[in-house]
Amino acid sequence: MYQVGHATARALLRRLAVEQAECRVPSLTAAIVRDGRTAWFGGRGRVGGAPPTAATQYRIGSITKSMVAVVVLRLRDEGALDLTDPLDKHLPGTPLGHLTIAQLLSHTAGLTAEPPTAWWERTPGIGAADLIARLGPAELKHRPGRRFHYSNLGFALLGELVARLRGTTWLDALHAEVLGPLGMNATTPRPRAPHATGYAVHPWADVVLAEPEHDADAMGPAGQLWSTPGDLARWAAFLGGDTGGVLSPASLAEMREPAQVDDGDAWTGGFGLGLQLARTGGRRLAGHSGSMPGFLATVWAEPAEGVGVLFMANTTSGLSGTLLTDLLDILEEYEPRLPGEWQPAAADPALLALTGLWHWGPKPYALRLLPGRGLSLEPVGGGGRASRFVPQDDGTWLGLDGYYAGETLKVAAGHLDLNTFIFTREPYDPGAPVPGGVTDWHA
After folding, report:
1. Residue 14 CB: number of other CB atoms within 10 A?
2. How are beta strands 307-313 and 226-227 bridged, if at all?
3. Mean pLDDT, 10 residues at a time, over the chain (443 residues)?
4. Quick check: 89 and 99 in contact, CB under 8 A?
5. CB-based burial label for 7 (10 Å; 0-12, 13-18, 19+)
6. What DSSP element (H or E) covers 227?
7. Most buried residue, 77, 173, 232, 440, by most Cβ within 10 Å?
8. Coil, helix or strand for 166?
């Protein structure tokens, strides 16, 4: 198993110690995952008079949402629902039945942030039937699809949808389909020993106040779960691509695609399908934060680098906000990943003959052969409409990403037909069927 070196571990621990001391956190844990395994763990402070360990439980709050979202995607992959389905198709009887499942997953449904109850994070929950009976037009704050507006209520509805379609509770479905198969057996709806007590730290004095904990009932899918650094490290590995057969890589990648941004023009943060997204320091991260009275937690995965990072703390507020990215920076500085060794690979001669220079009108493009018979088409010099393609059984090629995602590329004699655009070896080759006709070049 890969473990960071002594110097790296010392630097990571020091950053964690600074956070715990300067932010006055009763206890704080953090971990780094690399290539699907925990490469470093650190704990500071005290839980029950001893340092916290990778087996110490903390509340994870809204990280629960990302786990519930995986069950919804599993239902989609089985054909039990479509993400464009209105809620009413599977959960009839609410005044919000016109909202789509995808909108609820991505917080673009326009729903109110909180349910029409008392402060749900600090009071015992109510049942799903009671919650649904309280809903009305007032719970819709924005036109569906217009903007990002985080909604705890939306995930309560998704949890009930899971329960209806699975014929069990959302929690039992989650354990059976996600937590159990991933080996996350220390992730539970209520605390079990050893666990941290949630505290509020006084802003002007070094004293603490114990925070309440209860069963959120219908609001549970929005933030009920407790977990450990060990289990959350497994979740970080999952988000990075080690799905353990729980979800297809394609569906996980779909969850990580940005559906909406939540900070306007800056686009440093956004949301996919049940996952928060962030762009920082050249990294593209996917995961989720969580907060409940007395607890804060966040988990991020950077799939491109095969790395994940997380923290768990028993404080209501007060962390710096840069702990996890600082830990990633330390890892990159002390132990940067070595690039994989290049090795030559066998190539189909027919595909090899397609590589090289092509032209979209006068604009030159480079066609490259990728591993696994894939193709890459991108403008010479970079920028513009670049896409990758994978072969299909009918001899065509399907766009994976970029401008041509989902579009069809056909290879013909002397030219390429990319969704009606004709690419030729020479600029506007008169021997190819270029629409509009081709005349001679002239001064």
Report:
1. 12
2. unpaired
3. 91 98 98 97 97 98 98 98 98 96 98 96 96 95 95 98 98 98 98 97 98 97 98 98 96 94 79 96 95 98 96 97 97 94 91 96 96 92 90 95 94 94 95 90 89
4. no
5. exposed
6. strand 226-227
7. 232
8. helix
Q: Is the bond into 194 cis (omega within 30 degrees of 0)?
A: yes
d(CA 301, CA 181): 20
- Which residues are within 8 A (CB) of 322 and not within 5 positions of it... i.e. 6 or more apart? none
- The phi-psi region of residue 24 (left if phi > 0; otherwise alpha if psi is between -120 and 50; otherwise beta) is left
pTM above 0.85, yes or no: yes
For residue 45, how many other CB atoms are within 10 A of its CB? 20
Q: Are 286 and 272 in contact (CB under 8 A)?
A: yes
Alpha helix ranges (H) inside 221-373: 229-240, 249-255, 323-334, 349-352
For every residue of 337-364, DSSP letters joined together read PPPPPP------HHHHTT-EEEEETTEE
| CB distance 272 to 257 below 8 Å | yes
Instruction: For residue 303, give the 3-state DSSP assignment.
Output: helix
Cα-trace Rg, the chain: 25
Q: What is the DSSP letter of 100?
A: B
DSSP structural state of residue 202: P
Instruction: Find where tokens 């655009």 sit.
Output: 421
The secondary element (H helix, E strand) that includes residue 318 is: none
User: Which residues make Cβ contacts (< 8 Å) with residue 204, sequence separation at least 6?
Assistant: none
Orientation of helix 323-334 relative to helix 6-22, angle to 10°? 160
CA distance 384 to 367: 14
Hey, which residues does 288 pair with through a beta bridge?
299
User: Could you tell me which of 227, 402, 191, 417 has the C-alpha nearest to residue 312?
Assistant: 227
* Beta-sheet strands, E only, within 141-207: 199-201
Taking each helix axis from N to C terminus, what angle separates 63-78 and 152-166, rounded to the nearest 10 degrees?
A: 40
Question: For strand 415-418 and strand 421-424, is the pairing parallel, antiparallel, or unpaired?
Answer: antiparallel
Q: Where are the alpha helices (DSSP H) in 290-406?
A: 323-334, 349-352
Three-class DSSP category at 280: strand
For the record, the structure tokens of 413 come out as 């004699």
